[in-house]
# Entry
Amino acid sequence: MDIFIGAFRDGLTMLVSGATDVWSIVLVSIQVSGVAVLLALVLGIPIGFALGTKRFVGRRMMLIIANTGMGLPPVVVGLVVAMLLSRRGPFGKLELLYSQPAMVFAQLIIALPVVAAVSAAAVSAVPRELRLQARSLGASRLQEALMTLKEARMGLLAAVAAGFGSIISEVGAVTMVGGNLAGKTRVMTTAIVQYTRMGDYGPALALASLLMGMVLVVNILLTQVQQSAERYEK
Amino acid sequence: MKPASIAIQGIRKSFRGKRVVDVDRLEIRPGRTMALLGPSGSGKSTLLSIVGLLEKPDVGQVLLDGVAVTPHDIEARMSMAAAFQRPYLFKGTVSDNVAYGLRLRRVPSGRVAVLVSEGLERVGLPGWETRSALTLSGGEAQRVALARAMVLEPRVLLLDEPLASLDPLMKWRLARDFASIFRESPITIFYVTHDQDEALTVADDVAVMRDGSIVAQGCADDIFGLPADDWTAEFLGMEPPLQGIVRETEGGVAAIDCGGVTVYAVSRAQQGTEVLVGVRPEDVTIYAGTQELPPSSARNRLAGTVAEIEHAGSTFRVTLAAGTLRIAARVSRASVAELALVPGVAVTAAFKATAVRVRAIETGDTPGEYTCMSAPGTDITPPVDLQG
# Structure
């Protein structure tokens, strides 16, 4: 147990002393995953709405892609994005490999199918007749869509939680496209891997605790929002 | 706001190659309640969706006050409101639901509160604003759905089987309430139902739909009194209309020869006119054949035999054969037992001349349309000189 006690003591000292590299790592993690999850929501919820409420050619195929995408291995995403952004790749001229935008892009690809598929399931549970009812009371297409999203809000909160969860703990893709560059593309998960490889367990455990804490706080917040929504519905 | 007239012309709608609506013309006059009657699957709800601008027809037009409108005409859609068979309520409070359409119309919040309160009072739910919409019973939810539509003061109100999912007690209570609310509201109402009693309770006019087409339309009294054809008669629980010729008229009463049996009707039909004749089963009283009939205003007294007795809910439908003429009567269980009615028993059917509906044959009108030849006001007791 000495190894844990020692690592815990070192990690705590590091956090309390305000070691700048730890907090910059946390900041990069929040920036990258925060932007990725926001983009995933902005794109994924409308896609999920269309999949859940509309009938169009290719819908079935898109649903299969979205559902399959929920189990997409991050390393495969990392590999494909790295190839796309590499010097020899189609987007090599953009010189984005080993940058935060590349990491956001990779995480977006991971989170998007999750958000779209969970949103589609949530909005498809809203009865078609309720949408018809809104229209019959004078709702425009946009107002009808907003009503549907409001009715499906519990499921949409689950989409947020699932999308965030799919990327905050992800390590494979961000390593491959971010490169784990200190102060630039190093995030909590890649830093934990690196410190562990070096046998530097103190900062690894400190970052692991912060990562766990972050996941916990986000889920507590989402649960609270869900509960207040439930109370509103009863 | 002034009630609107609604008309549809040449509407066709198909789903997956199957024609579900094929209606050449239907008109609802301003401020009238029209019931669209028909069996399940006859295309009633699709027609309502088209009239309510919720669905686009493949071809044809919906006219609001004579002007063609489409689902893209937001102003036309804003002048309508609907409630459906299942009262789909939004999550939230009763007030959130009733206020939904008002908020879409950007009504100031203070005014919304007043209108919601008035709307709930109108449907018998005063003070229910803060209740959760998801905890209401079926009848309560349907009232909220009606308030949600009525509070918008629409020019056209569309109701799709609004009572179909309720238990009988709640159904009739609400039907009566609806009828009284409709009478007080200057709204044009299109009311879809498969229940003729409900249609009779709430509607001024009736259209009957079969396999996507309108087979009859006109004032409720005429449609129910004289079915357009054999199918409509069966659907309405009546015998097919009788065919006859007016032999003579006197004091507004026509003597019509129906296959050797004379039927008296209050009618404007001229002597020699070939006519169709119908009588509602509930307007016919059955007496045991041998007994002397009590004095009554029923001018028509036809002697015959019981041809058929069928259960019809809480009553019996007794069909009497008098020569070639067949006429149905609705008889209570107690009367069937008291008169010992069984097929073959001799009986007398009595009904007033005012209860007889008459329509000229080959008037040149579109099939299924009614030229009412019964005297005006025949749904009320006529002056003494015209009585039975």
